[in-house]
Design goal:
Number of strands: 10
Largest sheet: 8 strands, antiparallel, barrel
Shape: globular
Strand content: 25-35%
Strand order of the largest sheet: 3-4-5-6-7-8-9-10
Helix content: 10-25%
Length: about 150
């Protein structure tokens, strides 16, 4: 029961960090970053910058807030997604595993910390509205994600 309350709290009081990280700036300004392909050239074999083994896909990096939110740093539904972590309003999740899913979604296993507690959380990040929106899905309660769609903050 206590874990369920903490999990629900993480969704109800999602994310913010006083300042956007370098990762958020990179994601927002350079989502289409390219690297040289295996041949060392930058031609047809160039592709997105590769993520590490436990990295959130770059297309999901950035600062997000509730669809009706202001994106202000004090917004309690604001969250920041970086390469290997998610910062919520009163909790922080370090990525332990990433499974890339269809349509740009990713299933994350996070080592969470917040309010003096530690737990493991599995979340699915699913882009919506051509990548300008995001659903954060708890696999145990997928229907709840529809209540809190997120928008990308600029």
């Amino acid at each position: 029961m206590r874990h369920a309350i903490v999990t629900l709290s993480a969704f109800a009081i999602a994310a913010c960090s006083p300042a956007e990280s370098d990762h958020a700036d990179v994601a927002a300004s350079d989502e289409q970053a390219l690297h040289a392909g295996p041949s060392g050239g930058s031609g047809e074999d160039a592709g997105p910058v590769p993520n590490g083994p436990a990295s959130i896909p770059i297309s999901l990096w950035g600062v997000w807030d509730y669809a009706q939110g202001t994106c202000a740093p004090e917004s309690d539904l604001r969250l920041e997604i970086a390469e290997d972590s998610i910062t919520f309003y009163e909790s922080f999740g370090q990525v332990r595993e990433v499974e890339e899913l269809d349509q740009g979604a990713a299933k994350l296993t996070l080592a969470m910390q917040g309010e003096g507690e530690e737990w493991t959380q599995v979340l699915i990040l699913r882009p919506i509205e051509a990548g300008t929106g995001l659903l954060i899905i708890d696999p145990d309660r997928p229907e709840a994600a529809e209540d809190l769609p997120r928008k990308r903050c600029s």
